[in-house]
Amino acid sequence: MAASNAAVNSSSAGISASGTNLTYQWQVSTNGGSSFTNISGATQSNYSASGTLANNGNIYHVIVSSACSATGLTSANA
């Protein structure tokens, strides 16, 4: 399994990953990265939200997992 860093533009973020049976879970931090919580329903390689992600002060990342890997990969914060 391989993944590149998440890229954020004005209202969406995305990641490029390769592997089999991949699952995605986007997370958000509202406290400067001290902790992250799952974003309900954000389970695709791309995450779109209303409003502007890049300027809302939150930090986003995605966890990419595979049935073939005991541990998932977490993207860099964006």
Structure write-up:
This protein is an all-beta fold and 78 residues long. The chain has no helices and 9 strands. The chain has strands at 2-3, 7-8, 12-14, 17-18, 22-29, 37-38, 46-48, 59-66, 73-74. A 4-stranded antiparallel β-sheet has the order 6-5-8-9, with no helix packed on it. Strand 5 and strand 6 (37-38) form a beta hairpin. The protein is globular and about 35 Å long. The chain starts with a strand and ends with a strand. The model is unreliable at 1-5 (pLDDT under 50).
Bin the helical content. Answer: under 10%
Strand percent estimate:
35-45%
End-to-end CA span: 21 Å
Class per helix and strand makeup? mainly beta
Rough outline? globular
Please state the average pLDDT score: 73
> pLDDT below 50 for ≥5 consecutive residues: which ranges?
1-5
Strand order of the largest sheet: 6-5-8-9
- The number of helical elements comes to 0
The count of β-strands is 9
Spell out the helices and strands N to C: EEEEEEEEE
Biggest β-sheet strands, sense, barrel:
4 strands, antiparallel
The whole-angstrom Rg is 12 Å
